[in-house]
Specification:
Layout (H helix, E strand, L loop, with lengths): L8 E4 L10 H10 L4 E4 L6 H18 L3 E4 L2 H7 L3 E4 L6 H8 L4 E6 L2 H7 L6 E4 L17 H10 L4 E4 L7 H6 L4 E4 L1 H4 L4 H19 L1
Helix pairs in contact: 1-2, 1-9, 2-3
Amino acid sequence: MKPVADYSLYLVTDRPACLGRDLLDVVGRATRAGATVVQVREKSCQTREFVELARALKTLLDSLGLPLIINDRVDVALAVGAAGVHVGQKDMAASDARALLGPDRILGLSVNTFEEARVAESLDVDYLGVGPVFPTATKADAGPVFGVDNLARLRAATRRPLVAIGGIGATNAEAVAAAGADGLAVVSAICSAPDPGAASAQLLAAIRRGRNRMI
């Protein structure tokens, strides 16, 4: 059975952004304070190291009842029994990823344009990662800024869960949530925060305020 995920505060890991701190400690603080999903993103480490890191994170998240998503690497997700995979437009095709994952794992897909979102309507994906909503230095190939107004337009055009990403932090999280995002994906706003737990709690409070503005 496919895991049920609450995408509200979606932590994307980045070990360099942790500023020398242990990634498991940062993730542990963030999840205990309310982060609801964790995606492990590793673009440069070897496969065995990636598997070992993902397995350790899965053990942590299993103890909290939270899903682990693997960025790009279907093989790593299958090796560790992760809840799912997130792919971008230049990664493995979503249809191929779904064929390998089967029906019982979460599959997310990044979109940066309305055309990509339109194409995604015919794909068996569980949510769309939309962005970058704001300028970001975290991902070098993030693409043009999508913006909050376009996020609101996309919300009106699709019933798919939308996870906004790119330059999101405590100062703009409320506006992103108010635009209709089901989840806010953050990297440095948690990984680089002096207190990842306090940062997570602050972001969750902003998300709740934004959702209240939609009512």
